[in-house]
Amino acid sequence: MDFSNFFLNNIEVLLPEIFFSFSIVGIILYGGVVISNNYVLTRYTNKLALCIVATLILLTLNTPAVDHTILSNSFFQDNFILIVKLLLLISVFCCLILSENSTLQMFEYSFLILLSLFGLILLVMSFDLISLYLAIEIQSLCFYILASLKKNSAFSTEAGLKYFILGALSSGLLLFGCSLIYGTTGTTNFEHLTNLFIDLPEQPLLILGSLCVLSALFFKLAVAPFHMWSPDVYEGAPTNVTAFFAIVPKLGIFLVLVRFFNYVFYDLPTLTYWWSTLGGICAFLSISVGSITAIQQKRIKRLLAYSAVGHVGYLLIGLFSGGTEGIQAIFFYLILYIITSICIWGSLLGINNNANVTQVRFISELKTVYALNPFLCFTLIISFFSLAGVPPLAGFLAKFGIFFSAIESSFYLIVLLAVFMSVISTFYYLRVIKSMIFEQTPIWNTKVLVCSLTKSMSLVITLGFFSLFILFVFPTPLYLFTYYLSLMCF
């Protein structure tokens, strides 16, 4: 291959990724050379990472929005992928802002966040099973280390170990599925697979391979019954790391699922039937497990972990409903879920336990929040109501869109079951609200918790808070935006 021609053809499209790769190398040198001689400079690493992500956002906005294959069809970029990359970058930018007051100040944290973001960007651009697998492994390895980053905590070490062992199992399952698909078709490229499936007779090994790939992706999303790692990792990982896990990765993984279901395997009716069947079962299991198991939780992060399992189930309903309505409902739900998660995790990161300078662990500890900071308390209440789908908040429109797309596809039974489980899930959100409002500690005892919000954290939380109201009253811009995204999927 003529390197000069390759460079000239791809430099404009790959400029953000080239800048990002050099930035990651630079932050390694900064940590290894500069910080090792002056450890005080560690606190500037987060600001450096924020500058890198902000520059990436500007570079991505100026990237040409044309259909373009890269590196021998291993990667692909169009306007749809550019928009998803922007959403990922904005989400990571917010996560870095919410981590400003974290006690976990080390350059490794910012480096691993950036490297995992690099893996997610490669993931959404992947146009081949091999590049897809490598991108998932890049971000997964970063996640394993991030979960165990707090080395003096037994909880964090246990979370990282469990995540690594179960993650290795899912990676093996993904690689096995890709091997079966390659062995059956002789290709790993998405475009070649799509063209081949038009005339290829359906084979058992092909169905088995695709189901292995689907199961591995379900593990990355913590879909029941592949959710075993999620509560332990959410609980054991540092809170700012847990916030990153809860906010960022779902968007990239769902993009891969949409691409598989609506592009690669769309012309295989039997395979589509198996995917829809498995997806419907897992969606119902996720909603049920998330709604029922969360009721028993006393720790706030485990409750939010099971809540995330339930919300992934709602997203799967939209995915396997198919059509433009289902895809639009997914992106509408995902954007609102990210906004709500930023409000919740930002509020929790702004509340520290004054005794040992750690974030709150138990729901019962939140009963001093109202006396400590009424705005944080009200933000948590509104965010939980939005997750429950209570009007007049945008979360109601998100669930309504999912249910409407399922009804359009005649999935009446699963909609009835999902609505019933949604009512049940409201209970554990109300239990947290009850603890904050009706179990107040006397004001002289509020020194147990301290509020440590910075100005930038307050700004991000405030914007998210008002968005939940504004997008309910004026949802048209977001509807048009997500409808445009859904059209570009086909």
TrEMBL record:
Gene: nad2
Keyword Phosphoprotein among UniProt keywords: no
Location of this chain's protein in the cell: Membrane
NCBIfam families: NDH_I_N
Alphabetized UniProt keyword annotations: Membrane, Mitochondrion, Transmembrane, Transmembrane helix
Higher taxonomy: Eukaryota, Sar, Stramenopiles, Ochrophyta, Raphidophyceae
Transmembrane segment boundaries: 20-41, 48-65, 80-99, 106-124, 130-149, 161-185, 205-229, 241-261, 273-296, 303-324, 330-349, 370-390, 410-430, 459-485
Bilayer topology annotation: Multi-pass membrane protein
GO cellular component terms given for this protein: membrane
Chief localisation class: membrane
One GO biological process term: ATP synthesis coupled electron transport
Domain of life: Eukaryota
InterPro entries found in the cross-reference section: NADH-Q_OxRdtase_suN/2, ND/Mrp_TM
Stated name of the protein: NADH dehydrogenase subunit 2
GO molecular-function terms, A-Z: NADH dehydrogenase (ubiquinone) activity
All copies of domain NADH:quinone oxidoreductase/Mrp antiporter transmembrane, residue ranges: 127-425
Keyword Transmembrane on entry: yes
Organism in which the protein naturally occurs: Heterosigma akashiwo
